[in-house]
Amino acid sequence: MKKKAVAGVLLSVLGFMVSGCEEPGWVNFFAPLEGQVTITFVNETPYRVITYWGGYNPLDPATGIDVRKLKLESGESSPAVINCTRRIEIAGSSLRRAVELGKPEGINSSDINEKIAFSDVALGEENDEEPTAGEGDSVRYELGIDYSCGDVLEIHFQQDPDTGEFVVTLTVLD
Questions:
Q1: What is the CATH classification number for the domain harbouring 129?
Q2: In terms of residue numbers, what domain contains 16?
Q3: HEC profile for the chain?
Q4: Nearest Cα to 52, choosing from 120, 11, 7, 107?
């Protein structure tokens, strides 16, 4: 019975590959994990960005998770280097779940918000990390789809001048 189940799974996988299925998950799954990714966060909004971001493997989030807090003033940029990973995510429930499983030192899953906070409270004042200016949606970028190991990335925080909505964009420089 086990042999039939394994054979069925293998045939299904082979069928997807032969049929030309270009599901992005396959690209991410087979992309090699070698080297590092250099990221520069750029705040182009008139507000402070407060969020957590991290890199992890959604196939094994308990191993090798790297999560960091980002607090970035208006007009500032901040560089970071991480080991190549299958997913880079800013805020959101998937990152929170990875933190629950991976238990990185100094980070609690309750620290990870659903959305990215933007604050207009002066730095050092009470509530300077609260989303007083609004919130932006969490984002995730996938290895092999959005970036490759060794890439240099810029992640821009922006505010749409027409709608006032906060957006996050990725630029691959290398």
A1: 2.60.40.2890
A2: 1-30
A3: CHHHHHHHHHHHHHHHHHCCCCCHHHHHHHCCCCCEEEEEEEECCCCEEEEEEEEECCCCCCCCCEEEEEEECCCCEEEEEEECCCEEEECCHHHHHHHHHHCCCCCCHHHCCCEEEEECCCCCCCCCCCCCCEEEECEEEEECCCECCCCEEEEEEEECCCCCCEEEEEEECC
A4: 107
Q: Which tokens in the block code for residue 113?
A: 């918000």
Domains: count for the chain: 2
Write the pLDDT tens digit of every residue in 83-114. Answer: 999 999 999 999 999 999 998 889 999 999 99
Q: What is the pLDDT of residues 136-172, one digit of tens each?
A: 999 999 999 999 999 999 999 999 999 999 999 999 9
Q: Tell me, yes or no, whether 117 and 141 share the same domain.
A: yes
Identify residue 91 by its one-letter amino acid code.
A
Phi, psi (degrees; rounded to nearest 5) at 170: -115, 135
In sequence order, what are the residues at sequence separation of 6 or more whose Cβ sits closer than 8 angstroms to the Cβ of residue 145?
24, 27, 28
Backbone conformation region of residue 144, classed left if phi is above 0, alpha if psi is from -120 to 50, else beta = left
